[in-house]
Amino acid sequence: EDKVVQSPLSLVVHEGDTVTLNCSYEVTNFRSLLWYKQEKKAPTFLFMLTSSGIEKKSGRLSSILDKKELSSILNITATQTGDSAIYLCAVEDYGGATNKLIFGTGTLLAVQP
Amino acid sequence: DGGITQSPKYLFRKEGQNVTLSCEQNLNHDAMYWYRQDPGQGLRLIYYSQIVNDFQKGDIAEGYSVSREKKESFPLTVTSAQKNPTAFYLCASSPPVQGAVSEQYFGPGTRLTVT
Fold first, then answer.
1. What CA–CA distances, in Å, run from A15 to A43, A63, A106, A113?
2. Which candidate from A42, A94, A105 shows the least CB-CB separation from B109?
3. Could you report the per-residue pLDDT of B42-78, keeping only the tens digit for each?
């Protein structure tokens, strides 16, 4: 059965800390991996990764995919209270005629002042 | 303003009643999705539609039904057969990218409580 696993499930840090969130997957027809940030309601898109070893960056956030290890990490440097959210990892399952995203359970990040 | 709207934001129903959640998008996206989010379980796919008048079951379709009569609209009906309907429901859409799934854009969600 295809699955996406995120760790840790929750994390509490202080402002200024650096955090690393993990996502591992077992998806037969992998095409891409996506990261989303969910604050109170709608998840907002962060990154889409398709190629192994190429880091994507946006400000203090960065992410990289390792296809050999079937995993990805999301790094946040110099954390701020506004980074507090659930971070969701999703993998695109391209099943030929149809395709869909398989989501992990998410990592709940709390950044304390 | 382009985006996805879901209504209502909060919905309360008595057990045994069917209820329909609205999802509308003006992004001209072909694909639309419905997810359910429960605490500690992430997002689970209920139904998805890649084109008008066509839709497929996701991982937890039992007790739900959908229709896709217009490109802009993908309503979800939670029927009385759904055993645990209380949850946060998210609708999403994505543009077609040569047969691949693009990033999905999410609506603000509807929190359904059934008592």
1. 22, 20, 21, 5
2. A42
3. 899 999 998 899 999 998 999 999 999 999 999 999 9
